[in-house]
Structures are given as C-alpha cells and as structure tokens.
Inverse folding.
C-alpha cells in the first residue's frame, strides 16, 4: 500500500467521529439505495496528508427533494439552483459561515465561451459517480471516497477513474480527458493548473502544459463586451500561486505566456543590464528571481524568526526593480536613478489593471515599500534623521517590518564580484531602528510630542503656516535623539533657534 493509500485508509477509520459528518449515517439508514462520497480537493489533500476543511460530498440514489427534506431535519439547508442539485448544508452546531457542499451527481455542458460560469449543469441522482468526476478539471481532483458505516477498509471504496492517485505519486497536474476540451470549458482552469503546481510543488503534465500554452491567449477573451474570465478570478489564482511558491510561480507564469498577457512590464527586466560592480548575478530579471528565492530561505527565517512571508512581501519583491529598464541611463556607469519611485508607479498600474485588491492584498502597503526600498543606502546618521526612522519604522501608517524584509532580500540577491552580498547598510539601518526602540518605553509606542502646533504658535506669536511644521520637526528630531525630554527644554530650544528669526 502506497503512503497516499495509507493516508486515505487512516482517515477512513475515523471519519464517523468527525462532527461535520455525523449526518451521513442517518442518510444511509433513511435511504438504503443512497451512496455518499467525499469528492474533489479534500480527497486529494487527505491522500497527501495536507490540512483541508473544504467538505464536498456527492449523494447518489436519492431524489433532490427527499435529500433536502432529510437534511433540513439535521440543520439548515439551501438549494443552490434546481438544476445544479447543490445544497449548502449547515449541520446543527456547525459554523453557519462554513457550510458543507452536498450535491447530487451532475453533468455539465459548456457553451464554448471559456467562461467559468458559462456551463449548463444538470443533476441526476441516478448518474454514476464516474460521470460526475469526468466533468472535473484535473485527475488529482477527480477522485471520490465512499463513506460507509461499519466498514473502514479502503478496498473498493476509492473511485479513481482517471488515475488521480498515480498522478499524485508522480507529482503531476494532468487534465481529465482531453486538456483542450477542459480548458475550453473554463479558461480559468489554465491558471488553476499553475496554482496547483505551485501549491503542491508538482509539474504540469506535458500534454496539459502544451494545451495550456496554446490556449493561454484566450484568457483575455471577451464576449458581448465583457471579459469571459473576470480579472477578480485571475487575480485570485495569481495571488495563490505566487504566495505558495514565488520562484516556481514566476517561471510557470512566464513560460506559459501569462506574464506577457497580464503583466508585460515585468518582461522589460530581461536583458536589462546592471552595474557589474554591484550585480554580478546578471540582469534585473535574474536579480528579481534570486530575491524571490531568498523569501522563506533558512537565512531569511533566521533573520526574521516567527514571521510569515506575506503576499504583500512577495508582490513587493517581484516588482521592486521593475522600474529599472524605464530609468536606465549610461553615463559614467550604468545607472537607474529614480527606479524605486517608477517601480512603485508601475506596480500600482498593474495592480489596478488586474484588480489585485480584490484578493485582499494591501496594494498601498506594497506600493509604499517598493517606493522606499533603497532607504538602507541612507542609513548613516549624517544622512537619515531620527524622525525618518520614526516615520518608516515606528508608524502604523507605514509597513516598516516589510520594508526591512524587502531590503534584506534585495541585498541578499545583489552579488558583487566577490560573491558575498554586502549587508553593511542593512545592518546600519537595523541598528538605527533598534537604537530608537531602546530609547522608547515600548518598542512600538512612541512618546507624544512635547509641544503641539497651538503651543508653538502661542510661544512664537506666529499665525498658522508652514513654519509650524518646521518647528515641530526640529523638536521631534531632538526628542527622538534623546537630547530633549521636557516641555521646558522644548520651549528653550525653540526660543533659541526660532524666536529671533
């Protein structure tokens, strides 16, 4: 027995004790002709020993109205479309925000538009489970596990008509049946293939990959003036793939044509030169791939223990240098002055185009960090004020920790001829941040300003003006440097510097 079969066998021995499935034996007792299957992604995840909570069940041999009536006795039930035959079922005592999908077996007929909702779905309680599984996207998602009471052996319990278990063992993403047909039914499945490959660290099977590359251009297809695959769906798949495995995701998205189709700005990083005295690793694209690979590395985890790599950090790393080709000049040497600001602008444009915020991504935070990712080069006290450290690393309005993380992976991917990245400016910046923290009562709570604007105007006898801001910044710098702690000291300082002026 393979490890995947063993995982399924182990799960079967305890399924009857799961609170989410306490209703299944009652259905089997009430309807002797019924068969209940756990299907889809959860079967895959059980076999892989991955955590999963998305229960998806198919019940055969019971009319929809009879199944609905019985489920209603055991919880709340909502029929999602008569022809769909899908119930959103919440058993008594279960989280009402996490319903279980209970469905009759279904056939699907796609209209041929490639839209993920452009299908005609018909349920039929007499349909064999293999027919239901044949409409699914990939073999690893087209398996069903029959739930029986009093029988915990896997023998004849697993329906796997398309070889999903073999593909799990081979670590392959393979379309069910002909991949061209599967993708024409729903073009978003092409991105799902990439996403599953990244989440599971699998490869996409050759025929599936070739069909995916041929049809990828259809991802931007429109019908009746509207996108067949909405950007919200695209953004969700891109975000999941990049969050799961940034480097593998970028390689697949590039090779499949997705980058060219949706984020062509990134491609200009290829063959964009960098000054060799700082970047012997190659062009901007090579540097970016290397930086993505630093995320979650052992060195990164040591530097930022107990800190997850957020989706925002992944997108910031991917786009942090995208502005270099747009700002490239050749004078005394290769320069890309202002590329940090240009990179932030380009990211914002892409994020708005493909609706990245619909995934929950904090687009503003990513943009802020990209725009300031060169801050470490000014970490010397002579170049960076204490108020600057406060602004970017001790403010709820700026993601300072993510800025440190991006700085770290950016430097780690910048390889000088010596072969050893120079972290001196990063360490200097980190020391400045820590030093300010030590002077504070709490490392995340800054002391209030000693004087407010009204007090400053009264002391200097001046009206509201930009002068107030200048005075406040002057006082704040002295306060954060530990050179001034009381109102009396603050008043004396501004009298000395500003009263005569």
């Amino acid at each position: 027995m393979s490890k995947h079969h063993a995982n399924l066998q182990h799960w079967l021995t305890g399924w009857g004790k799961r609170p989410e499935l306490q209703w299944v034996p009652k259905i089997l007792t009430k309807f002797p002709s019924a068969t209940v299957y756990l299907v889809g992604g959860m079967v895959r995840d059980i076999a892989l020993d991955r955590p999963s909570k998305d229960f998806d069940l198919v019940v055969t041999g019971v009319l929809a109205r009879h199944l609905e009536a019985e489920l209603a006795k055991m919880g709340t039930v909502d029929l999602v479309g008569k022809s769909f035959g899908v119930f959103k079922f919440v058993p008594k005592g279960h989280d009402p925000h996490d319903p279980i999908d209970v469905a009759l077996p279904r056939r699907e007929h796609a209209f041929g538009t490639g839209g993920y909702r452009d299908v005609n779905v018909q349920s039929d309680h007499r349909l064999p489970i293999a027919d239901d599984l044949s409409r699914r996207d990939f073999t690893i998602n087209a398996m069903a596990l029959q739930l029986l009471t009093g029988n915990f052996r896997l023998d004849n319990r697993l329906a796997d008509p398309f070889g999903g278990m073999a593909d799990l063992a081979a670590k392959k993403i393979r379309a069910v049946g002909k991949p061209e047909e599967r993708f024409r039914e729903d073009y978003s499945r092409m991105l799902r293939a990439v996403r599953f490959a990244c989440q599971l660290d699998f490869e996409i099977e050759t025929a599936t990959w070739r069909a995916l590359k041929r049809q990828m251009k259809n991802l931007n297809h429109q019908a009746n003036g509207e996108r067949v695959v909405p950007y919200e769906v695209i953004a969700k798949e891109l975000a999941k793939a990049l969050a799961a495995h940034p480097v593998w995701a970028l390689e697949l998205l590039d090779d499949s044509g997705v980058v060219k189709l949706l984020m062509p700005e990134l491609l200009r990083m290829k063959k964009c030169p960098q000054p060799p005295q700082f970047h012997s690793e190659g062009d901007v694209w090579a540097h970016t791939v290397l930086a993505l690979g630093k995320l979650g590395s052992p060195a990164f985890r040591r530097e930022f223990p107990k800190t997850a790599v957020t989706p925002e950090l992944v997108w910031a790393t991917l786009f942090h240098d995208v502005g270099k080709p747009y700002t490239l000049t050749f004078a005394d040497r290769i320069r890309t002055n202002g590329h940090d600001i240009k990179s932030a602008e380009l990211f914002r444009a892409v994020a708005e185009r493909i609706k990245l915020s619909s995934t929950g991504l904090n687009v503003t935070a990513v943009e802020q960090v990209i725009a300031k990712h060169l801050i470490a080069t000014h970490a010397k006290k002579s170049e960076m004020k204490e108020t600057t450290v406060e602004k970017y690393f001790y403010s709820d309005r700026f993601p300072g920790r993510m800025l440190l993380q991006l700085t770290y992976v950016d430097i780690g991917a910048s390889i000088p001829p010596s072969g050893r990245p120079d972290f001196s400016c990063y360490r200097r910046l980190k020391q400045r941040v820590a030093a300010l923290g030590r002077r504070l009562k709490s490392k995340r709570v800054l002391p209030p300003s000693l004087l407010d604007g009204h007090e400053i105007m009264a002391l200097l006898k001046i009206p509201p003006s930009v002068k107030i801001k200048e005075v406040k910044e002057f006082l704040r710098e002295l306060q954060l440097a530990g050179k001034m702690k009381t109102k009396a000291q603050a008043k004396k300082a501004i009298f000395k510097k500003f009263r005569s002026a």
